[in-house]
Amino acid sequence: MDSTHLPSSSSAFDQVSRALGRYNPRGGPTADPAGAQGDRAARHPAPDSLAAGHQEQILGAVNLNQDLMITRCNLDAPVFAGLDAAAGKPFVDLLPPWDVPTVTRRLRQVVETGQPHVARIQRLRRRDGSELVVSLSILPAAAPEEGLTVSIIAMAKRLHLYAAETAIGTSLDIGETAQSLAESLLAWGDVAAVDLDFAVWTGEGVTGQVRRRIRLRRAALVPDRAWPEGYVTPGDDLPGDASRLLAQAVLRNDAPQTIVIPDREAVERVLQSPRVVRALVPVDRSAGVACIPLVLDGAPPVVLGVAEVWRRADNPFRDSELLDLQELVARTAHHVDLARQHQREHTQVLALQRRLLPRTGGDTIAIASVYQPATPDSAGVGGDWVNSFPLPDGRTALVVGDVVGHGLGAAATMGQLSMEARALLSAGLAPDEVLEHLDETVTLLDDAESGLAAGYSALGSTCCIALYDPVSHHVALASAGHLPPVLVTPDGHAGPLALRPHPGLGAEFALREPFDVHTFIAPPGSLLALYTDGLVEDPALSIDEGIDRLADVVSTVHPWDALQQAARHVVSTLAPARQRDDVTLLLARMIGYREGDTATWRLPARLDAPARARAQVFALLRQWRTRNDTRDEMVLLVSELVTNAVRFAAGPITVRLIRAGNGLLCEVGDTGNGRPRLRRGDLLDDSGRGLSVVHRLTTRWGVRWTDTGKVVWAEVAR
Model's pTM, two decimal places? Predict the structure, then answer.
């Protein structure tokens, strides 16, 4: 085994220090292996060679405890001379005051999460007031009580180009990308800002056509400090005059160019307006600025925005520095455009998912939903979706699904499955039949020739469908690999429904199983929670424990609580602080019809059944005090439907009448499996006249299938 390998118990500080002991800069003297301290850094080139720009990366390390106090340090290289990093001192004493809040927050995040923070461009203060630009990485210790190790790399300006490009390309969030660019630019000045075209900020398309007026929004500004009133900070739009002047400055002769304004007098002369000066100039003392356009190469080139680096007038920009600045911005402009494209895709997918969210419930059920997308630094919006909609026959459909993957491929599949499920449920299919169709759709979409996008697969997506009958209070539920819904009964008992496991949609043929229908009673006052796995997944808990936590929280929802507010409370209580997946929740409170608003009769399939049905319906409608014309229409409608059931079906006939809102709903069920169809008949053809009468009398009608036959339903306005 190589003796240089470290045992797993070594701290991050020990590992960095030993690396320092083995480090040998090109052209510098070799380390003394017999030195008194084996973990000391090797000797480094003299300061004059550093100033000449020929140095390699110079590495150091500082160990901190949980209170962010320095416990050990290894900053022996000459470039670190003047840094007061003695044991027992706060690490933040090495920072400029305006950077203390940001760096402290980063340090505490690493302590709490154990996730390292790598390659932050940072300034450190020396005793004499000068500053050293370094690349700073925060590494957690193996044991939390051992604190942190801060790795510090002092490097030549040119090496910032590589380090900055690496840091900037780590996020697809446009704000974080602009912030990383601004932090990198700070190595060349005292203040750095990034102003983006508003179309870039919002993710809209950009054009190569030269525009004399560009609306700019400040996307990033460093360092983080208290700025004077009137100065433009992140999220603010630049004044129109400032946007126009910057656009004219960087688009001279219709070509984007870097410009330098050397001092305060020249800045005021260019900006002209005192209001624009207050908005753009970061300090009262004399200052110069370099404005570098963010340009996408093309014919013509596309300007995404402007990066601005401000520094004291007594420290003018050298030509070599301007070349470095232009190279850095040129290398990273495509990262800004990638973030813009991601922002556009994110916005489109989010809009699609918001559109799928249920709007309202109804008289028989109350609905509330929450959709919370994953954190912006994720790969994109996921494929979680919920939907709730009333069916024409008076029932309500509740649907929740989770499509595999992120981005537009997942969003397209999500939209297709959601619309297909709604269409099939509205056509009267049972939940298990709908899942069979969705299973076939997912399989077809995965086919190489008919798939939505190369490389994307929706196999393994999940879906759960529940149909609520507000008359019988029965819920028919079928699931394709989805987590079980949680039911809270009126007596307060809460728990997940016992569903048979299923492999999900698009499973291999050998793994496919029939979709079971789970039927249960949900009395008025019951609460049903449908959700996706992002709500209950926690690395510290099993999935069953996560579902039990959900049941406990949902059980605290009082029947009088506003349902939407209760749904937000459930999500805020359970959702992890740093989401890795979308969080979706649908709460449905069962209300049902009042007892006096429904009536059901069961009749034998005999020739006198239509007459008996007419008598029962006529008496009930008189009791409900319906208008005479409405009563006559409903009596005729029931007579025609029952007659059809007697002629073409067998077994007992069920007649149900419902008073709902501004209409009357009639249902006639039988044991037949033939589908009634409306058709054009000859003048003397008596067949099919009944359905023509039904079609003319009703606002809508249709058929749904049951385990024992079918139900023909029809609605009449009252």
Answer: 0.58
